[in-house]
Amino acid sequence: MKFVVSSKALLSRLSAVSKVVNSKNAIAILDYFLFDLENGVLTVTGSDQENTLTTHFEVEEAEGNGSFAIKVKNILDVLKGMNDQNLSFEINEENYEINIDYQNGNYNFVGLNGRDFPEKLVTEEEVKKFTLPAKDVLSGISHTLFAVATDDIRPVMMGVYWDLVPDKITFVASDMHKLVRYINTNLKPDVTASFVLPAKPASILESFLPKNDEEVSVTIDSGSATFKTADFELNCTFIKGRYPNYNSVIPQSNPYIVTIDRMCLLNAVKRVGVFATVGGLVKFRLEPNNVILTAEDIDVSTSAKESISCDYNGEPMEIGFHYARMIEVLGNIDHDTIEVHLSDPSRPGVFTPLEQKENEDNTIVIMPMIL
Length: 371
Prior knowledge:
- Helices cover 17% and strands 43% of the residues.
- The chain has six helices and 26 strands.
- A nine-stranded antiparallel β-sheet has the order 10-6-2-3-4-18-17-16-11. The protein has an eight-stranded antiparallel β-sheet with strand order 15-12-13-14-26-25-24-19. Strands 5-1-7-8-9 form a five-stranded antiparallel β-sheet.
């Protein structure tokens, strides 16, 4: 079996597929890429058992069909230090010895039989299929992934929740300190379903979804989904469990509204937060057309205070937020001006762009800290 491929093209595809491979695997062959050559098309697959990512592309001077496996680290280390040039692969199908010739020399090592690579399980249950604009799916993941929980106290919170109805999709993520609800009415799946996509495959999906008008094909069953674009196919397993009622977390009555420049507030929080205690408390005192940020650490005798102009005509109020969570939230709103909706210091703050984009509704909730 032989073929020729550009080192740059191969590195690009392998780097993308490597995101699914764990650094440590219980099954040795999962440390390998699966290469499958058929009729001049090379398909490369990586897997961690729960998630499988595949890419395919045409190669040159292909002879024969078959499959073999190459260790992920070996091939990536070779390609990363190489200028763009053609690589000539020759595989001995009896012992899976792999020889790679290039301009200045060659590499020779032994791979594994591709048939030993775990196959994707085929479900016999009825599946739901639909296509979606890739850029809108990308937007849904990008707006929510930062808020996913990272601890396993409640595993169901360690992913992005997809709530599908025929004429829209709602993406939700929460770590119980902050919650993001992003609704996109440009996504019309024409089905009703819901699932929790774990953070890892959500991040992988975000990395390869195109930002143009291309569509992504989606197939879901009760336990998994497959996302397919022109260049990649990701199959992933859902997190089992019932996601909490996210709408009940969002306060509906917020008489106090602060309109403020997002970047001014973000930079002020970054500066003042340096002087916060280990707990991360930054106090926000609201006064007419002014918000005063303060932080202090009594143990080391440090403090900071900064004032920012804003549009606010309510009663004076003081509320506390964790500065790092504020930085995350403010850094993930894509509008120059935001509104902060408040009711009292014990209730969550609701952050929204001053103007929502067409077909979008982006709402972020942050739990307050005790003053």
